[in-house]
């Protein structure tokens, strides 16, 4: 297989704090010999495991980048024991444009792993993670939020894995992250996920959803910032005491597809339940108004298909046929 | 002055409930003899004043349209005494595209009043309100929210006017609307506002800001829905008892330009204070990280220029130089 | 008033056949000192009146340009007695892009007369016709068709004018054009039309609609080609015998707005009557299917609002709310 | 091979009439968990063969969708004996935008069969037909027209196949469709066609070209509507008598590439022959005028390369180098 | 007249070096309360005249901005006697996008003076110069180059003015600038130019053309950097000795329109003369090849319409009908 | 492997001069049966080798196309001995749009060899060269320049190859081309290059870089025009004497990656060294100014990483992070 064209401007084997770029050549109309320059910072000090921490897998999710740009400001290398590779914005072209998928090739980075070294831009980035960065890591944290069009209650998550020892290690790390909610996920279709690539490489992997709507709040940023520290403390790479939420985390489960409500109408969403509400099957959760005309016709009503907690909502007030309206999870 | 080219498909003099359109001819490449069709509903029953209620002055603000599409579903004409003209989406082309300004001529409807009958699309809409609809009304309610890029604490507002009798009538109507906050505004530059056009016509006028971010929540929708009823009950057009919030409204004031904090940095916003927080002058309200590179350089810090309550925030996590970061109001 | 920035590369006072351009400076990103170059041909021979013949007033109408590019190929200057100015594509930027309105400023040339010398590109073109070309002419022919989105039965038309002598001269010229249909029009809103500008200048003016759909047929091209000759023969500028259709022209009238049927539904048009069909009030003329879903719900039916002949249809099979579906004229 | 991500919202094994969608997840910037929802209706009653009927393989062809949206309105399930799957718009994203190829990935659905389950949107649609829908069918009808840029005389067609029994069955079904013209086609390059996929699966397959120009006429809609019924009656699935044209169908043949005339000039097309005209080799069929300038230079003339009937024309009056100008078929 | 909405973040009356912005509110879809922030620096020290120095009047011209961003780096306030206002990029939105005209309203800043306070973005910028900045100045320097599509030999210029004393002052200042060429211009159509606005205000005004092609060279940057200093030394505001070119400046004249050669062909330009070449009337200066096809037809040849020096060339190798191909000046 | 869909309109086996097209079918929204028509000319006379000469591999490089469109004008077939295939614009869709990469599929033709017959447009073009044109040739010349964003000193080049006999033949041909500079290249990553495809086919191959910036100069055009002749004379196909530059060619070498300087700052480039300058390691070669604000902060300085000659520069004055700023070569 062809070499990946990315070259880092830092030396992963060197001790200390290094700031630089992953340089990915990108020849195009406005720059014959141009490049995508993905920021990267490494902390390396003493012997210890390697953690790889990322945000911006989708370019419109912000708690992760804020926590990681902050983390890169650290100068206290003496508090580290091992190596931490920080990439606040994996899909940097999408992050720069504030878009979910790459503005260049329209690919969703989190559906194309393991990628290809001779593919389009996003595929090349995936390949560099698959064949260069992930193999260097013992612990991998990928911070997601809902993006511009979805909003989640803040949770860290781990997956049900065949290797129960690995599963337990992941679950422990996810709980150590210290979000208000914890979710154990059974992915129905894990093909192409970064999660799957990392887990199949035998790493301790944690993912999150920490809010959404293309914005952040002080409390969701705080969850991300302390979660990053907690994760590294748990991994034994960072010195310090974990900082946990005041109340115990709530455990969630999405056992089947009835958790997902998709709209079959286009129009204006009137939400009838709020995030975190407990609903009963058959309760009205939203009404969708046709915007074409005013009339005496009532809007379409959507009913909860199950009991549970509303953990996700559609953010834009205009919805299209096929969009996810809400997700309802079981509280364990 | 030339006639306005808009023709309504309903008869404003007719009793009963009518649903129809304001038909604005719009010749363009994909329809030589096409039109913009702005939905309108009228309730007319018995003798009484006329109320004109609008949303979608900016196309990405949703509490107003939801309340008004719902209102148009009513069939209880016997509860009305007078006339109510309901236009849920004034700038309908913007509303359809979920944009603040018109996608056709890029104009901000709320800065071009009184408009022109021979101007571009948005100017023609403004002229139809200025010369046809507003003159028909006694009470005018225009429901705003922050749109996709701003978010406000929910308030109704009236302006300081030269005619103190009119000012008192407006203030009473704004308070009757029943939002959690009330703001008395002194507009520094009122040129081009719908508000100014309506007030100069001598009408009782109420405006609002009820949330933002291009989305809504059950509690903000509820403020709008009950506010619409409360406004009409106050005007004596609708029968019923007003439905008010449980706690007394908080009164706000923005006495000078120090209330507005504008960003002089482009980058990733880390919010340090939440909406409704009381801050002290000099307190850090936000940090802005450059996204180009990770480094040990600290982000730019923005400090509160005055004591007060955070009543507005920039929604997108990426900010540009010149964007409004926050607004801090005085609590009266 | 400022001088119009257009300079012709031909000399309107010179005898003979000249081919050139109307040169309109147009500074833009891809050409700092660029220009729009509108093709023009002039035939001048002996003494006689001046005719101005145009097509491409809307850029997606083609019978006129085909007839006039052909006419410009003529080399028989000896058959002329007077002057003929031929501009096959008035709104040349639109014609080049095959669009109805100008791709530069999105203006509909035929709604902005008399134009402005310091306006945007289309306004400058209008001003050049208003202040330079039309004043030079005695006879003016402007050939229209329906464009990409409308289709008409082929007719020549003249307007009802205050000056009955001028009206009769126009009617005679329109009938001399020799189209299968003749329409006498009373424009409800004549503001901004080229027609109005020309007629108010006291010229003999003929307009046409010769087909549409962004295409042509041999028989519609033939109507235009012989119509151009017939018009000039009628004006006494060209030698020869007029070539008329085999059957007598049908006279049409559109006495009021009930002739126009506008769609209040978006969807897929199923036409139920053909162009030239005679319909009775209440007859189904079209059905509009919602495309969002298949269902057992019948499509919306549109009924003829009057008796008459179907003289215009909406061409694209997908229709939007507000589009013109059909026009039904009275046969006189 | 990976599972196709499409899930139908109807149950293909259930009796009765069902309306629903083929739900294809489509994560994108404006909807993280969005979907393409392709309308589908199924009629199932008693024992009998399965017919799969489609339109909108290209998104700008309309006789098929009109006939099939109408067909889906039927409520007379008792007239069916077997199963009919109706998909009026195969390439639904293209159909919604009125484009030939998909607006998402710019792919021509009819050149990429059998598709891929992990490809781009159009490839996934093709795969769902190849591996799920076509295997369920015995009879397959795919209704085409010329689209916005081509126009055909209305014909049904079948291909020359290696399996002569299958070929005869297809020809019989095509003739049973009842269009004014029948064409037996020998595809030179059948790679990627839906036709080829279906025929290689051993199904009875009929295709059509029923008009074009991005519009329809009452008589072409009528051919499609009765053709759909005729096809199902022929298949023994629908009760009733076939409704055939008044005159016998004309048989056509395109024996070699001399039937296709491609333009080597860009400009304005002046058509010299009409659809259905019989032409002789060497006859002028079109003239192409350069639009850049008017001049005494004659336009380029295109001559018929063979005797035959004009069965296809280029619709837009502006043509580019390389566009198909006309097709001339032999009348058998 | 309405107040201009721009507010400076610096105080023009304050001594010392200040860096800031001209803040122009700009409400749009991606920022409801956003702004254009035009960088500005002021040096003020002691008593003396005021100089206003600008670049980026067109956004794709770079010698001026480079010289002025450099100038703003100065910290030697003690060398100043008076006030210098430095705005490296007048049309900042165009400069950011590397376009000649504004990407917002497509206006050419240098054709719309004096502007309007209630116009579109570029008109508001013009108005701020006309009514606020220019009145503060005694000496005004506006540095131009040819932009992406034109290229000039480097010259400073002054205009022929009615006020001969002012004309002499301008000529002296232009010659003091110290470019290799000096041009005395008689503008045929000066309407809308910044030059005209400034000169009519009675100021000493110098303009330049220093290269082009959207790029710079060390020697053209050097002309601009030393020219800025020379200009201020000449004005008595800056201490120091002027730095002049090694050879005496060449004086140029463009007496009439025969100096401008416009293309009447679209295609590929083959330049036959170089910048600075002396040509004779009738000499081949360029050949234009049609790119549509290769053939034995020779390209169109363009001949010099006069004797003189080639002082301007069309940069892009593809040319359009109407583009300026070359300018030929007389050497005085 | 599937047949390539391109069909030439000329016969490569026929003697004489033929002008025609490579016809590549391209079905798209604006032409269902359209095509890309790539101009091609062939000279064939007597027995002799075949030369394939191309330009426009990147669509914004012009010395090659100018030389080859000129070459195609020749009518002196008697001066040829063998066959010359001339394709002035390999990536014709890019050349028409003046873009480096294809406007259709955004592919860089020179990175995707050998291409695919069933791929996207650019891949199909590559495949036609790989499997049809290159196999016909003995000598292959591909003329490049720097394009819109890079600028090179004019050189011809050959590669270091495993087959030393072939290497010597290529070097001799490159030197025979007669450019002012000659470069012997060791490609680090030759995957996907046309060069590699041709060399691996055993042909005598020469490439060039003759300028750049999206424009040409008389002297760079002259290098290309005489180079084409010189190349064919060297190959023994064309009669005549080579025309060489007045001074001996300078030999260049780029031994390692230190030759390439990439920008890590976005902003305005101030070039400090000119093309062809000899620089010393550590010398300032450019300064990059941030454009967001004026300030007393000095711009970023870039230093020469090695001694050598500046042979390449970034053309646009605005630079992005990751763009190539300069190339410094060793003079042998």
Quaternary state, please? Answer: homohexamer
Helix-and-strand structural type of chain A: alpha+beta
Number of helices of chain A: 6
Name the largest protein-protein interface in this structure: A-B, 52 and 52 residues
Number of domains of chain A: 2
Domain Succinylglutamate desuccinylase/Aspartoacylase catalytic (chains A, B, C, D, E, F): 47-234
GO molecular function, one term (chains A, B, C, D, E, F): hydrolase activity, acting on carbon-nitrogen (but not peptide) bonds, in linear amides
Protein name (chains A, B, C, D, E, F): N-alpha-acetyl-L-2,4-diaminobutyrate deacetylase
Organism (chains A, B, C, D, E, F): Marinobacterium mangrovicola
Polypeptide structure, described:
Chains A, B, C, D, E, F: This is N-alpha-acetyl-L-2,4-diaminobutyrate deacetylase. Six copies of one chain form a homohexamer. By secondary structure, chain A is of the alpha+beta class. Chain A folds into two domains: 246 residues, Aminopeptidase; 74 residues, OB fold (Dihydrolipoamide Acetyltransferase, E2P) (Beta Barrel), CATH 2.40.50. Helices cover 21% and strands 30% of the residues of chain A. Chain A contains six helices and 19 strands. In chain A, the strands form two sheets. Chain A has a 15-stranded mixed beta sheet that branches. Chain A has a four-stranded antiparallel beta sheet with strand order 16-15-13-18, with no helix packed on it. The longest helix of chain A has 18 residues. The radius of gyration of chain A is 21 Å and the shape is globular. The N and C termini of chain A lie far apart (46 Å). Chains in contact: A-B, A-C, A-D, A-F, B-C, B-E, B-F, C-D, C-E, D-E, D-F, E-F. The interface between A and B is large, with 52 and 52 residues.
